[in-house]
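Researcher: Please predict.
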Amino acid sequence: MTQPVRNIAILAHVDAGKTTLSERILFAAGEVRRPGKVEEGLATMDYMPEEKERGITIESGVAHFEWKNTWFNFIDTPGHVDFGAEVDTALTAVEGAVLVVSAASGVETQTVAAFRKLREAGVRTILFVNKLDNPDYSLDETLINIEEVLGVRPVLMTLPEYKGGCMSGVLDVLSKNRLIHSDSGEEVIDDSWPQAGEVSDSTEKIKKHYAEAVEFASNFDDEVLQLALEGKPVPPKTLLRGLKELAKNKDYALCYAGSAIEGFGVRSLTTALSFFLPDVPEFADNELGQVIRLRHFKGVGEISLFRSHTNMERKEWPAGFEFSRLKANLLQPVDEIRSGDIYAMRSPFETELGQVISLDGSIPTCEEESQPSIRDKYQPLLQTRVECLGAEDYHHVEKSLNVLARMDPSFRVQKDDGGFWYLHTVGEVQLDVLLARLKREFGCEVRAGSPEVRWQERLCRNVGPVENTFQLGPHKISIKLSATPLDGDAHDIRLSAEFLETAPREILAGVRSALLESTEIGVLGKGPLVGVCFEVHEFTWTEGALPPMIKKACADAVTKLIKPADVQLYEPIMELSLECPVNFAGLVTGDIQSRDGKVKEIGGDGKTHFLKADVPLRKIFGYATGVRSISKGTALYSMKLLGYRPATI
């Protein structure tokens, strides 16, 4: 019998304890001798120096473990908003996920964002309420918060026990066991509990929550319903079957509670992952597998994280292909690959994110690439000018930047004819990490300017037509071009009927590509030109004209066509969600208003102050340092792009 495979991701808001929980799961499964601590820079999954330094997950770490005769591929995803693309790409390769909710903070903004991603991707989700080692944090309030904010009914499957103000164990609802720590720190069943005839607060809690689980499961299993109606006990195996059906329903979520840092509730959660998550899907017979992530390791080069779609031994692998297990940044060669499993792949050619590879190692010509759909979800908000320290490093830096851009679909590189580049990033943290990796992994020494807001430029009026000619030796290209504004951010290119009929495909593609590339640069250099329709009235060329000539002719035509007075700047507006203790509410609100922020929602519970505000991105640089200072490190916040509005400066 083939061992079942489960691919799972773990998601959470920053500081909810996601990576700590990952370490505890690996410890429970016997993969590590002791769980590494994030605050000490020892987390197994956070292997990058930048992750250790910042105490956050940047790249989706991958680990493997066995539990209850099931093989797990375990992906620890970033919680920071700058690395949302890592989460999206991870979710393309998993069937199940754990969403961590901190009992200290409840459902936070990135918790909601992660839950939405999971729902959109159709990934079955189990909740874990963390940080209950502090008895002052309320499990009941967190469950109510989950139901109100996420819109699902949490079905509690473990609950904490306390002794002397400290967490001493958890009660497992399904097995009706108490789990405590052994001398070695592992969670084990307390065989001495309950004693014969013992009735205690703990036994009553188990009884109550078991009955609730039966009530919920009865909606999905006829036998559970029949036994419940007859007042007969429902055996755990029967309840398990009903809960498996419940887990498929989007109105409910199985919920486990405990403490990752203390290692309570982890064993029950890990068992649930083998019980309640779906099998890997069926794949096409002619597919070797799909590239789900790209990675680069110093001294190793580029590898692909690869999900196999077939069972195949080494002797059958296509020529030039090698597969390994990837544990953090360690590669362990394997002799066979299994359908649904995740490996590190070395291939004889450069791969692309989302690429499907055929059994013979080739790329299907009719394949629809998934890269653009992921890339288009992320709007770079910052641009930073980068240049080489020495002219001799130019080609190495350019190649390295292109590798990083291929690995991260939310990062883009724009080459300037002046011999430098603009790095387009989602946020400041992403930029800092990319520059650090450029130096550490690729050995590139560069000079980076200060990050600037990436605005949008919009065409205000109809312009043109203009004519432009470019000649190089015997070759000559001429273009007649006009442009009109469009609603929204889309671009359109209209070619004359004669040009369409007479031009070969490569010329047509070259013109379209050149005009679209000119919109990325913009007219004022502040950001991309959006919402424009180019019309090519005439285009002539001599035989043998090279693609760079087409690019130059089109770029110069756009420069002649659209002048600074023809465009209006639009600036990005961020929606800031923040919570802090009420005694800092006035300082925090005043600071936001001083940044031209408009507060649109205020709330709280008497202890915690909550607000939402719209703030121009240009005014929010360095906000992490500022809000940490005025709130003495107690404020939690997140931001997302709300949209663009006409600039007032």
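Model: The first strand starts at residue 5 and ends at 12.
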